[in-house]
Amino acid sequence: MIDKSSPIPAYYQLKEDIKKKISEGTWSVGQCIDSERELSKNYSVSRMTVRQALGELVQEGLIVRQKGVGTFVCETKVKQKDMMSFSEIVSRTGRTLETKVLQFKEIDASKELKDIFNKDKIYIINRMRIVNGFSIANEIVYIPCDYLDIKDKGELNGSLYKVLEEEGYKIVNSETSIQALLMEDKYKRIFNTKESVPLLKTCSKNMTAEDKVIFIEEAIYRSDKYLLEVNISSKGGGKLK
């Protein structure tokens, strides 16, 4: 099954075939795949080739290796790489998204929010994002009341990005800080779990092309089910110091 005359490296061909088998259900989530020895024999490649293929699949989060036990298929994480709404991310993976609006309320802007928006009245929107039955994200958004023309919180069950685009605001940039959190009891209640799963917190200012801040978001994600990729580059082509 490995074309050794192909310019495509053997480890890459093997990796892609394993990925195909996982996507087709040959090996399902939690199932142990073939051992290194079996893969080496079945594909007529060296153990080193097998290790390289499996190593990259581990890095991609598709499998996990347990020493002395075997190699197991992981549950695929919700993966965010570019600027897009959580709704769009989940939709692209073909999974089911449910949104519970826990709070939609008009409040007086704090001094910090007033300094950012120069507005007196702010909406606070607290939403729980549930993917395939698992509570994955808790998002709290602060946005000036005159940026949203919403009467019913049910309108917030979908993408906030799309709602804002209908109001004439297109989000193209975000300034975000990221930190790890410990799974305290309050988070176990929020995420409806008894497990001590890893958490990721992001705080972001979301802006238009003119750098106008439209909303602030504080979000907490289950990082065992959500992956955030950050691309860092030196735009001027200079050296990083």
Outline the fold blueprint.
Blueprint: H1 10-24, H2 36-43, H3 47-59, E1 63-66, E2 70-73, E3 78-80, H4 86-92, E4 97-108, H5 111-117, E5 121-131, E6 134-144, H6 160-166, E7 173-181, H7 185-190, E8 199-207, E9 213-222, E10 226-228
Parallel strand pairs: 3-10
Antiparallel strand pairs: 1-2, 4-5, 5-6, 6-9, 7-8, 8-9
Keywords: DNA-binding, Transcription, Transcription regulation
GO biological process, one term: negative regulation of DNA-templated transcription
Protein name: GntR family transcriptional regulator
Explain what this protein looks like in three dimensions:
InterPro entries: Bact_HTH_transcr_reg (IPR050679), Chorismate_lyase_/UTRA_dom_sf (IPR028978), Tscrpt_reg_HTH_GntR (IPR000524), UTRA (IPR011663), WH-like_DNA-bd_sf (IPR036388), WH_DNA-bd_sf (IPR036390). A hairpin with a 2-residue loop joins strand 5 (121-131) and strand 6. The model is unreliable at 79-83 and 236-241 (pLDDT under 50). With 241 residues, the protein is α+β, with helices and mostly antiparallel strands. It is built from 7 helices and 10 strands. The termini are far apart. The protein folds into 2 domains: 10-73, Arc Repressor Mutant, subunit A, CATH 1.10.10.10; 78-228, 3-Layer(aba) Sandwich (Chorismate lyase), CATH 3.40.1410.10.
